[in-house]
Amino acid sequence: MLQRFLLVWLVLSSLAAYYWPSWILVGPDPFLWSAQWLWLLITVTMFSIGWMLPRDEVRQLRSRWPTVLGGTAVQYLTMPLLAYLMGRACGLSGEYLIGVVMVGSVPGAMASNVLTFLAGGNTSYSVSLTTSATLLSPLAVPLALGLALQAERAMDQRILIQAALQLLGTVVIPVIAGYVCAGWLPAWRGPAQRVGSTIANLTILWIIAVVVATNRDKLSDSSTEVPLTALLIALTGLNLGGYLAGYLGGVAMRLPIPMRRALTLEVGMQNAGLGAFLARELFAGGDSIAMAPAMYTFGCMLSGTILASCWSLTRVPEE
Q1: Domain that holds residue 61
Q2: What is the pTM of this model?
Q3: Residue 159's domain is classified under what CATH number?
């Protein structure tokens, strides 16, 4: 229920975060108070994802590494550059441009695995792509951010190093630890998968709600220069361009249609929740930068669901 209607829950939780001071006149704001603990939430989530990783999927990484690394390369080579070009084309600069590029630089989202299944795509390949992109993120994300924003002179080398360490500590190490623990305690695998999926979805909801709460004043004050229209256009172009890049990449690698669908959804559906977290952790103006990842979460969930629904009507056999 939580996964199927994640977009609805995103809307409801964001509205709750936005209107909380109006609804609850006394006591602390849970969304603002919990912002300092997002790193712990991300760490627990990644540990849960590591525990949920199918062991045969990890083993298959070795046997089909060319297609997995090829798909990961499509994502990390096209999305940061496309994000920068879309942001500049829409007249964005400063914090808002960095936010759009952050969206393009993070690995794919776990939701793409579910939508690939609904679309009649190769779910096994989708999980492999997500795993590969996540494990490579400490190297790929800082490099992508640095190259895409080099022209803006907006990236301090220390920020890139901090990004690598942040991803290593809150993403990669917890994923590996969860995977190892699952091997030690196989009897707990079933319950852990059910709980882990819930934790991952709740984390997305809470991170986006925190971003909405920290940007209440900007969103409600008409005099504040927040380029929402430009952000929306840039992120929509990035999302649709990501789908196109993923599909064309699959064609170039001569992948069968189910694998092309998996790659399309993987490239277009970025882990924007992680992007919002990194924006808050790495940059002084992190709340403003995190607006782009928060908006992208809504957009890619909506477009991904529509695309998967359309593809589900034209299922094809594995070639």
Answers
A1: 29-214+225-312
A2: 0.82
A3: 1.20.1530.20
Tell me if 3 is assigned to some domain.
no
First to last CA, the chain: 32
Q: How many CB atoms lie within 10 A of CB 204?
A: 25
SS (H, E, C) the chain: CCCCCHHHHHHHHHHHHHHHHHHCCCCCCHHHHHHHHHHHHHHHHHHHHHHHCCHHHHHHHHHCHHHHHHHHHHHHHHHHHHHHHHHHHCCCCHHHHHHHHHHHHCCECCHHHHHHHHCCCCHHHHHHHHHHHHHCHHHHHHHHHHHHCHHHCCCCHHHHHHHHHHHHHHHHHHHHHHHHHHHHCHHHHHHHHHHHHHHHHHHHHHHHHHHHHHCHHHHHCCCCCCCHHHHHHHHHHHHHHHHHHHHHHHHHCCCCHHHHHHHHHHHHCECHHHHHHHHHHHCCCHHHHCHHHHHHHHHHHHHHHHHHHHHHCCCCCCC
- Per-residue pLDDT of 234-293, as tens digits, reads 999 999 999 999 999 999 999 999 899 999 999 999 888 888 888 888 877 677 888 888
Mean local confidence (pLDDT), 203-207? 81
Domain count, the chain: 1
The number of beta carbons lying within 10 Å of the beta carbon of residue 133 is 25
- Does any domain span residue 5? no
For residue 220, being part of any structural domain is answered with: no
* Closest listed residue to residue 76, CA positions, set 161, 126, 138, 150: 138
CA–CA distance, 254 with 199 (Å, rounded to integer): 36
Q: Decide if 234 is inside a domain.
A: yes
